[in-house]
Design a protein that fits this description.
The chain is an alpha/beta fold. It contains two helices and 13 strands. A hairpin with a 3-residue loop joins strand 1 and strand 2. The protein is globular and about 60 Å long.
């Protein structure tokens, strides 16, 4: 089981890692000031000091008509990530998307293909907001065009992922990777 959530008793401060030394000390830039901080991680943290190690930009336009949820830049590779919320289930263990005809969803699939042709990596992440789901599939009977575009996008190299979320009154966390069953 995946537990990708952590709750803090105090709010965190955002800073930029500048330098690490003497195993447990780091220099961190907070606003315009550099402070010394304790670092509990005794590992080398190799890569964290590299310039622009893992830049994530939300709501990025790919072209004039299409905006994706995230652009991730790492090691000179750019990846677009589109996220879809999943709330449909007609079987007690299988979540499905879409729950209605989605021309916008089809447009996203076709544009992710275009992004691959232009050198980007492309991901579509289905976040399942239903407890106890074990599998995920495209609801081809609800939107046949979306299903056709899904198959075309898969063949073109779009990466599809489905994860179930655990939802409580205080948080939503990614809980488990689901198998996509109609590939």
């Amino acid at each position: 089981m995946y537990n990708l959530n952590m709750e803090f008793t105090k709010s965190l401060l955002k800073g930029k890692l500048i330098k690490r030394y003497k195993r447990f000390f780091i220099d961190v830039k907070l606003d315009k000031k550099i402070v010394v901080a304790h670092c509990a991680n005794t590992g080398s943290m190799k890569g964290l000091l590299d310039e622009n190690n893992d830049l994530i930009k939300p709501e990025v336009f790919f072209n004039k008509e299409t905006r994706f949820d995230f652009l991730i830049e790492k090691n000179n590779q750019k990846s677009f990530v589109e996220v879809k919320n999943v709330t449909l289930f007609r079987d007690e263990k299988i979540a499905e998307f879409p729950d209605a005809i989605t021309t916008r969803g089809s447009k996203h699939l076709l544009t992710l293909i275009d992004a691959i042709k232009k050198g980007y990596k492309a991901y579509l992440l289905f976040l399942v907001q239903i407890q106890n789901m074990e599998n995920f599939k495209i609801a081809s009977d609800i939107d046949g065009d979306y299903y056709k575009n899904y198959l075309t996008a898969k063949k073109a190299g779009v990466n599809f992922l489905a994860y179930r979320c655990n939802i409580s009154q205080k948080k939503i966390e990614i809980e488990k990777k689901l198998k996509i069953i109609n590939e």
